UniProtKB/TrEMBL annotation:
Residues 222-260 form the FPG-type domain. It is an enzyme of class 4 (lyase). This is DNA-(apurinic or apyrimidinic site) lyase. Keywords: DNA damage, DNA repair, DNA-binding, Glycosidase, Hydrolase, Lyase, Metal-binding, Multifunctional enzyme, Zinc, Zinc-finger. Belongs to the FPG family. It catalyses: 2'-deoxyribonucleotide-(2'-deoxyribose 5'-phosphate)-2'-deoxyribonucleotide-DNA = a 3'-end 2'-deoxyribonucleotide-(2,3-dehydro-2,3-deoxyribose 5'-phosphate)-DNA + a 5'-end 5'-phospho-2'-deoxyribonucleoside-DNA + H(+). Residues 242-283 are annotated as: Disordered. Residues 2-103 form the Formamidopyrimidine-DNA glycosylase catalytic domain. Its EC number is 4.2.99.18. Pfam families: Fapy_DNA_glyco, H2TH.
Length: 283
């Protein structure tokens, strides 16, 4: 699932392409909105909210989309060939006189009144890349369930919005704890710096085409996508396992030496092999 920095980039692309312009065409290829026509409406802006995208139009209407695992918005010049995938994967088209924004594989797409946006994003915690960022509130949210594994708490968008599997794994590595550590057992000094560290990582990457957390050009990430290769710090084999209730794939990477503490039960089928190859971020 895209992380907050990826969604921030998508919002910027949509905003730069559409904001202040009048739609010449709209096409929603989902049954509920198949007959909706927004042509003639001006686009006001597109903003990210955690992992959600809100594109606002005049007359108080908002298009809410979420990329989930495979979704993406592509922007093309007028007359340019669309290259985001086969036509049957297109879910939305927003065109102006000179640009076309095409949404592929969008798992969430709905039109709502702008006044009702809180219905779809009001449950989110402080946004790491948003104007509502509040590190104290984010930390309090994380610590509200002290028995919950840290990795699961970080992924819960009600605690803080914008972290996905990649940043979850990288943050836990930088904090020197396993993602299975109960969040209440996180040493106080590390808990205190967690919100600021998370924000710095996302801010540093929101303008980059390739995400990097190491500061080393040859190695973009410390642990995510590296199993069973050696840890960049201690050379122990990086491990991977699913985390959570199994309803979704939650690949979690960690170094058992640099991150001592709780781990999955021995014999976990993903523990010793690379099941989740790292994917490049789609621009």
């Amino acid at each position: 699932m895209p992380e907050g920095d990826t969604v921030w980039q998508a919002a910027r692309r949509l905003h730069e392409a559409l904001a202040g312009k009048v739609l010449t065409r709209s096409d929603f290829r989902v049954p509920k909105y198949a007959t909706v026509d927004l042509a003639g409406r001006a686009v006001l802006n597109t903003i990210p909210r955690g992992k959600h995208l809100l594109t606002r139009f005049e007359d108080g209407l908002t298009l809410h989309t979420h990329l989930r695992m495979e979704g993406t918005w592509k922007v093309y010049d007028a007359g340019e060939r669309w290259r985001g995938g086969p036509a049957h994967q297109i879910r939305a088209v927003l065109s102006t006189a000179d640009r076309a924004a095409v949404g592929y594989r969008l798992q969430v797409l709905e039109l709502l009144r702008t006044a009702d946006e809180e219905r779809v994003v009001g449950h989110l915690g402080p946004d790491l890349l948003g104007p509502d960022w509040d590190p104290e509130r984010a930390l309090a949210n994380l610590l509200s369930d002290p028995a919950r594994p840290l990795g699961e708490a970080l992924l819960d968008q009600r605690n803080l919005a914008g972290i996905g599997n990649i940043y979850k794994s990288e943050l836990c590595f930088l904090l020197g704890v396993t993602p299975w550590l109960p969040v209440g057992a996180l040493p106080a000094d590390r808990a205190e710096k967690l919100p600021g560290l998370a924000k710095r990582l996302l801010e540093a990457n929101r303008d980059r085409p390739v995400r990097q957390t190491t500061g080393v050009h040859r190695h973009d990430l410390f642990v995510y996508g590296r199993a069973p290769r050696p840890c960049l710090r201690c050379h122990t084999s990086v491990r991977v396992a699913d985390q959570g209730d199994g309803s979704q794939e939650r690949p979690t990477y960690w170094c058992p030496t640099c991150q001592p503490g709780p781990a999955p039960a021995p014999g976990s089928p993903q523990r010793w092999r690379e099941k989740y190859p790292r994917r490049p971020r789609t621009p």
